[in-house]
Structures are given as C-alpha cells and as structure tokens.
Amino acid sequence: MRMPTPLDICFLAISAFLFIMYIFFLITLVVYRWSQPFRSVFFSLTLALGVVDVLQMFHTYLLLKFPSFGWMTNSLYLNLPQSVVKYGSCALWALAFNQHIAVFIIAVNRFSAIVVPHGHNSRWSPFATRVANFLICFSGVFFVLPKIVYNSSIKYEIVDNVTMSATIVWGNQQLLEKYKYVSICLNLIVNMGCFVMYMTILCVAVRRHHGTLRAKVSINRKNTANPPDAMVIYHQI
C-alpha cells in the first residue's frame, strides 16, 4: 500500500474540515427548520441538496479517491464483491444526477421568487415542494436503471502498478459512452439554464435597486426644492 504524501494529507485534512462544516450547516437547517427563514421552500430544497452532497462526497472518497491513491487496493478494493462495486458505481452516477437536478430546481425556485414573485407561494405549494424534493433525492435511481440492468460486469482494476492506483471499470463500454454523452448534454442544459436564470435575477435585482435609488433621489430633490414654509414652522413651534 502506498503511503500518503504530504499533499494527500493536506488535501484530506482540508476536505475533512469542509465536510464537517457542511454537516454543521445541515444540522442547523434541521434544527431550525420550523423557524423563519429556514422553513421556506428554498431551505427545504437546500437541505435535500445538502443530503445528496454529503452522500456523494462519502461515496466519492470511499469508492474513488482512496483507491486512486493506491490505498488498500490489494487488501480491499480488488477483493470486493461485484455487487458492492456495482452498487458504488451506480450510486456515484445516481447522486451526481441528483445534484444536477437539485441545482436546476433551486435556480428555478430563485427565479420564481425574484423575477416573477406574484404567485410564487402558490406555485411552490407544499405538494410542489414534496415533488421537487422527491426528484432531488430519487430521480438518479431512474437515471441508472439501464446501468443496473445492462452493465453486469463492473470491477476495480489497477491503472498504475507503481502507485497501485485503481479505479472502477465498466464491462459494457458502449453503455459507458452513452452515459458520457448524456452527462455532457445534461451538464450543458443545467449550466446554461442556471446561467440564464441567475443572470436574469441579477439584472432584475440591479434594475430594482436603481429604481429605488432614483425614487429616493427624486424625493430628496422635491424636499430640497420645496422647503417647509417658515411661518408654518413658527406656528408649529
């Protein structure tokens, strides 16, 4: 087994610290979920995304990062049952899909709240929120169904005999290529959609801010141009 380098240790230490901070953030959302502003739909969606993120980080380090470092390759990863390796591979793809869906749904929620606020609460009813959370948590299962059915051979293979680095290898390479193309398309759609929505949010926020400033300046100018009558002030005193 390859010993961890100082860079590996530094990387893992930073990752562990950020992971713990993220856990505390999610705990805060859970503890105060019935208090404002944490009881809003946005924080409900954020909590669902946070759970998916934590699961993805856990699976990524346990099933990809550690074997890529060459840690416990011969003693553990090469001896794992194929069912465990298949579960890990499917979980990684499913959770990644869930993350994409979550990011897009949260962007839609923010777009609805800021750009078209009229009717926002009715659009994001409790039922709609439950549907959105269901998609965030479980849509990845449907995404990996072809992988579960048609990709029977999945195993770890050593890719570097010096470092003993290993990775998960699909038996059905044609299916892997299709998943790669679908993932690229999904990334483009989600990224472009989120970019357009958040840029629209930014433009609307800036326009509203400038409108508020112009209104304040106009009021100040009117007050300066039309000062109160001195006799009225004297009478009030």
Automatic annotation (TrEMBL):
Keyword Methyltransferase applies: no
Q: Which domain of life is it from?
A: Eukaryota
The residues forming the signal peptide are none
Keyword Transmembrane in record:
yes
Annotated keywords:
Membrane, Transmembrane, Transmembrane helix
Q: Which residues cross the membrane?
A: 12-34, 41-64, 84-107, 127-145, 181-206
**Full protein name:** Serpentine receptor class gamma
Source species taxonomy: Eukaryota, Metazoa, Ecdysozoa, Nematoda, Chromadorea
